[in-house]
Amino acid sequence: MSNIERLRDTSFGVARDSAPAPLKVAVLLPCYNEEAAIGDVVRGFRAALPAADIYVYDNNSKDRTVERASEAGAIVRRERRQGKGNVVRRMLADVEADIYLMADGDLTYDPLAAPLLIDRLVTGQLDMVVATREGEGLLSRRGHQAGNRMFNTMVGRLFGDGFTDILSGYRVVSRRFAKSFPAASGGFEIETELAIHALDLRLAVEEIPVRYGRRPADSESKLSTYRDGFRILWTIAMMYRAVKPFRFFSAIAAGFAAIAVVLGAPVVATFLETGLVPRLPTAVLAASVMQLATLSLVCGVIVESVSEARREAKRLRYLELRSA
């Protein structure tokens, strides 16, 4: 019997005749104006994961998303704070489960891949499995493809390799991950925060390619290429400051030091030749900028210590939670 069949037969337990209780799976679907697709999404996950609890968290929809989700058999809840990040934070806080599967409610992700993602998480004893997107759905907006490649490259360079599709909305996480994740994002940058959190704590993660389809004709994307792209870029910068503060502030210090050298080199050369400082304002400015460089470097050293303490606290919180 395959792992997937074993999981289905035991409702994600280890075996029919074994003592451990079956693993509880929760499917989490954040939604905003997804009337056209949410019913089919819920039914698709119900067919793929018959024993799972399926939650639809409505985010102030103005259409009939709530009615369609209820008709399909989902557990419907609401989050009043607008933004996907706010919804994900609420879902992970409220729902109790051993395994959390997150997907979008727009019918672009294949529900039939869910058992494979969960099977890999369980058998590999992983903390997160991300479904990397492949297929025709990626061709609909070229700007999103270019931005996704850029952000993946940036995260890989700044935080280390581990992901090729950080913005995928289809992923499975363990209870340990879900309950120790300090979600701070309010919008679509939540996926970036999830990836960086895993890289920062060096958690066990993996990616599996999954077909990514097109939205239904009467469903519109809520992602703005430029507005949300800037927010994701800002999130990467701020998390780099929080996770790797010494490198962040050292780069700023190096920039200030370079400016100070450019300003002060002629003044120093003139002083060495004549013993005079004819350009006093330039000398004062160069010295002031060099002081800023020194302060930035000192800030980096101090904040690095704080960051290490925060990392240890997050790691301890992670270890306090039982594994699935």
UniProtKB/TrEMBL annotation:
Q: What keywords are assigned to this protein? A: Membrane, Transferase, Transmembrane, Transmembrane helix
- Transmembrane stretches, start-end: 248-272, 284-307
Which residue intervals define the domain Glycosyltransferase 2-like in the entry? 27-178
Q: Which domain of life is it from?
A: Bacteria
What is the residue range of the signal peptide feature?
Answer: none
Which Gene3D superfamilies does the record associate with it?
A: Spore Coat Polysaccharide Biosynthesis Protein SpsA, Chain A
Give an example GO molecular function.
Answer: transferase activity
Q: Which PANTHER family match?
A: RFBJ PROTEIN, UNDECAPRENYL-PHOSPHATE 4-DEOXY-4-FORMAMIDO-L-ARABINOSE TRANSFERASE-RELATED
* Protein name per UniProt: Glycosyl transferase
Please report the organism this UniProt entry assigns to the protein.
Methylopila turkensis
